[in-house]
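Following up on my earlier message about adenosine-5'-triphosphate. Here are the inputs again, as you asked, copied directly from the submission form:
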Amino acid sequence: YKIKLSYCIFFSPDITPGLLPRPRRLLLLVNPYGGRGQAMHYCQTCILPMISEADITYNLIKTERQNHARELVRDIILSEWDGIVIISGDGLLYEVINGLMERPDWEKAIKIPVGILPCGSGNALAGAVNFHAGFDQVVGEELLLNCTFLLCRSSVSPMDLVSVTTASGHRFFSFLGVAWGFVSDVDIESERFRHMGPARFTLGVALRLASLRTYRGRLSYLPAEDGGGRRAMSRSITLAPTNGGRGFHRSPLHRTVSDMGLCEERSVLFKRSSALVEPSDFEASPSPFSPASNFSFEAVLEESAPPPLLTSLQREAETNGQPKQLAVSESHHLVEVQGPPDDLLPAFDEPVPHNWVTIEADFVLVLAIYQTHLGADLLSAPFARFDDGLIHLCCVRAGISRASLVRVLLAMEKGTHFELDCPHLTYVPVRAFRLTPLTTKGILTVDGERVEYGPLQAQAHPHLASLITGKSKVKITPL
Ligand SMILES: Nc1ncnc2c1ncn2[C@@H]1O[C@H](COP(=O)(O)OP(=O)(O)OP(=O)(O)O)[C@@H](O)[C@H]1O
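Thanks, got it. Here's what our run produced:
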């Protein structure tokens, strides 16, 4: 099918073509083996003719191996491109996003618009782009046609990314979701049927249903209503040299915070709400800093406490005239890798904050998804938006019958599974979560890619990336 995207530009004789906007330049990355291996065929028959008609220039690179795309985007000159478009499945986009985040200039690099033309087997993000554009839910060539048409338009939307950290310290940036149990089992175990295209999932589901597994795990999360607008910022400061907190317990600061109900054992302060931390409370109290009152402590602050307690304490330390003895150092509880700080996440060896919810249960599946679609025809989270800042946490608990699970999965095609009122299916929008598998063997995936099995935690980073969505309500029909 060929769509004629023709247009006329009228300009007066004194406007030279040099003043007109230059054509968009896209870097097209094609995985020739994605899905059923037809990506190059679709490039020739549909994609390249359409984008040429839309006056888009491009360089097309065929990926030669796993991580090739990741390496390529680590080295590109950003100013040479208006966008990077993946012609494959979600796995290749995952590589591109993580390659961009590995660059020293990640903050700028991750803003380059990325797009996807579905030639994989799952094609979840393409399904979401198609859905948000208002098109009917379609798969295969129809989905590819819709997405190519949308690419030819220029609109770009902000897209949240979720940083996922494993217990060994690996950090990934994810645009789709984290899966454990039924979903990740089907995804990975059906890879051997890759030649079947999307049908591999149907077969995978049938096989997994035949021997339904359950997994015990602990799931902790920060509910969205708790995190919205007042994101906790876990920071620690150390006033050195420490003396085991002895000075602190005698200090006016200790009295002040005790009076405010903020003080806990061993000089650790935990703020209960932003209203309790008013810098003026500290400024009004006698200075806690004296040579005899060196101590170390931790404070948990929130962004909404204006200005942060740390600043106030730092100022006190400096004006006390003993900057060396009372040198203040500050550290975030972060994994030291590239990207924005995970300011909602505690360190792995720390318990989750008190405002998180923890459940321990037997699960059939845990799915933390941030897009509407889990596959091109699986509308798993119909309420999700590219930039809602949310992780949509869905769980199916053990005890569900095979028949009910099949009903849930079938309803997911239309996004009506929550209307079934299945007591084993739960949903909660969150901003961060920690998953600790207690069953020793299993499969965990991030955006469909297998990651090490064990505890992991994640938090949403709103609006971090840019997605080519070409949002449109135009109805297109193949010619
Ligand atoms: N030339 C290549 N040979 C082998 N593997 C490749 C090649 N190019 C890319 N890959 C890898 O193939 C994997 C799968 O690609 P991709 O996700 O794009 O397709 P898919 O798995 O069929 O689709 P989906 O993720 O939608 O199910 C990616 O991890 C990518 O790194």
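One observation from looking it over: The chain has 14 helices and 20 strands. Hope that helps, and feel free to reply on this thread.
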